[in-house]
Amino acid sequence: MDQSILAEAIQDFISSHIETDVNQLALQKNKFPNSDYTAILNQIAAKQKAKTKLPTWFSAENIIYPSKISVEQTSSERTAEYKSQWVSGKSLMDLSGGFGVDDYYFAKKLNQVIHCEINQELSTIVHHNFEQLKASNIQCFSGDSYDILKIQNPKLDWIYIDPSRRNEAKGKVFMLKDCLPNVPENLDFYFDFAPNIMIKTAPLLDITAGLSELKNVKAIHIVALENEVKELLWILEKNYEGSTQIVTANLLKTKTEEFRFELNADHQASFGLPQKYLYEPNAAIMKSGGFDVVSCRFELNKLHQHSHLYTSDTLIDFPGRRFEIQHYIGYNKNEMKPLLENQKANLTTRNFPDSVDSIRKKWKIKDGGNLYCFFTTDANNNKIVLLCSKLP
Asked: Nearest to residue 317, comparing CAs of 283, 277, 355?
């Protein structure tokens, strides 16, 4: 950890240039010849990223940041606070601590949190930052978490793991066994120390694939922030053999849209043609695959088995976007041309053969405006277009 960054003059320089383009600063002469100018610029870039994502860190004095990429990859405070709601008891060990945002929030709920980080420099930075944030009930260890568990032999209420992928060459599809630590291989070992385990994974992990590798899965939380899925949380309980609950949470500025259902429970959707109102589930529900559950729970007709859009004659509260259908037309020249050609509209496709870009080009539709058009397939397998106005 570069202690020189904490010099008052350098901290003032970082704060006064928080809105400045770092690339432009790089062209300027280093005002601090005894310090690494690149390191100072890295602090500015990382702090800029933290402004909205990590406001507690951004507002605190004498915080040291790791690389900008580390800040980009860490949990946001909003998602970290969400995680903290689901732990209880007295103690938790984080086996892959990283920048420590999750642990800061766990420490608000538990008496003791242990932060393990294999990178010595990052561990030192995190320890320093916890001191600045007055998070006195977090203990930091540097090293391999497997070895730390064996040496410390703690009795914990929770173990938290955010495994990192080892093989980027595998592309978007990955398995937990390809990550560090190898959770499936070490699961029994972890349960020797704690009866509860929370695993954070990227939303790219397929839920079915994750369930095939894990056991004792009590719940899976799909967490979205402003309708963008950020992470999956797998809650495991030692010896648990019941059904798995799916919890979808879309964290919005003023509320959280939550929707729960039991995985593999039998739900039969009802289908129908477009009525007065249209509903589009939020991103967390879309990731969950609980499309038939939505139809049953809210008593809505689904437009098509694969469209994942819903309709009703009466407006209801719904975890997603709501629209009033103004027109319902077939996807053909006679009906499309007078209503949409050369118009401005927001386009969405669901279970439709053409892409948004190709539709815009074909019909010369500009982006934007107050008109929302859904290109989809109805219950009779007809290609249709729903022209809608968005509702609050």
From this structure: 277
Separation CA 78–CA 230 (nearest Å)? 11
Residues of the chain with pLDDT under 70: 166-173
According to DSSP, the residues that pair with 271 across neighbouring strands are 302
Enumerate residues 6+ apart whose C-beta is below 8 A from 40.
Answer: 5, 10, 13, 14, 30, 32
- Number of other residues whose CB lies within 10 A of the CB of residue 386: 23
Sign of CA dihedral 44, 49, 51, 57: negative
Encoded tokens for 60: 């605190």
Rounded CA gap, 35 and 46, in Å? 18
Contact of 157 with 194, CB cutoff 8 Å: yes
The predicted pLDDT at position 324 comes to: 98
Residue 294 confidence (pLDDT): 98
- The 10 Å Cβ neighbour count of residue 29 is 6
Residue 258: name the closest of 175, 190, 317, 183 by CA. Answer: 317
3 state SS of 73: helix
- Helix H segments across 133-201? 145-152, 183-191
Dihedral of the CA atoms 167, 171, 175, 181 (nearest 10)? 30
The identity of residue 55, as a single letter, is: P
What per-residue confidence (pLDDT) applies to 166? 63
Q: Check if the beta carbon of residue 312 is closer than 8 Å to that of residue 275.
A: yes
pLDDT for position 174: 75
pLDDT for 71: 87
Which pLDDT value is given to residue 72? 84
327 sits in which H/E element: strand 320-330
Report the DSSP beta bridge partners of residue 376: 350, 384
User: Tokens 């049953």 identify what position?
Assistant: 296
Helix/strand/coil for 136: coil
Only one residue has tokens 């259902």, namely 261
**In whole angstroms, what is the distance from residue 377 CA to residue 374 CA?**
10
Main-chain phi, psi angles of 283, to 5 degrees:
-65, -35
